[in-house]
Amino acid sequence: MRVSSGKASSTAFVAPADEAVLLEALAEAGDALTSALVAHDLDAITAATRAAEVLCERLDATVVDPDAPRPSRDEFAVISERLAATARRNAILLETAWLTDAAILRLLAAAALEQDDTAGPYQTPAASPAPAGWLDRSA
Prior knowledge:
The chain is mainly α. It contains three helices and two strands; from the N terminus they run βααβα. It has helices at 16-39, 42-60, 73-111, and strands spanning 13-14, 63-64.
């Protein structure tokens, strides 16, 4: 079904059921990544990502015997939907993490603005060209 350039000659034929098992394992790796993202566990994020990469490499190197019986379309549809849902969920979690990180950086930058020490404790600092706490959203 899928053949990577230069790998087909060294890859044995596998049964279509094995391909379904690999896809199911990929969905489980996506679920593990979700759990790791929610727990903010960097080691688990790295492990789940690496497991998914290995499974993708194995799927990419898979050559399915065209004469073997095929699993039903329903089986592949269920796995495909599961993979799509996991990908969407993880994308939202990652985007939320990036937005949170950017907000924290903006707060830290606002807190680090230099104050005029000669103004004294009861005088307001001089106006700056940009409002305090403002950073370009692309930062």
